[in-house]
Amino acid sequence: MIKEAIEKSGVTGNPKKLKEERAKIRDYAYNVKGFEGIMYKWDMKDGVPTNKPIFLFRIEGGKKILVDSVLPDF
Question: For residue 62, what are the domain limits?
Fold first, then answer.
């Protein structure tokens, strides 16, 4: 996704534009639509996956325990 963000957002690699170009990559990744990842097709809205569950875990005795999962409703 980062490679695609660099290519599609006009990042040049110019050290003088580092802060600006990092923001372009962040903004692209926060709102990407239809990115074909290794296992999923990614759609994001404001940095949250819109088509995948979000999981909440708690740690008890050093073990991860699933508390709940929610599929965002955007």
Answer: 2-70
Q: What is the pairing mode between strands 48-49 and 63-70? A: unpaired
pLDDT given at position 65: 98
**What distances in angstroms separate CA 35 from CA 9, 54, 65, one per listed residue?**
14, 18, 30
The structural domain count of the chain equals: 1
28 burial type by CB count under 10 A (0-12 exposed, 13-18 middle, 19+ buried): buried
In tens, the pLDDT along 18-55 reads: 999 999 999 999 999 999 888 788 888 888 778 788 89
Alpha carbons 31 and 57: distance in angstroms, whole number: 26
Whether the Cβ atoms of residue 37 and residue 1 lie closer than 8 Å to each other: yes
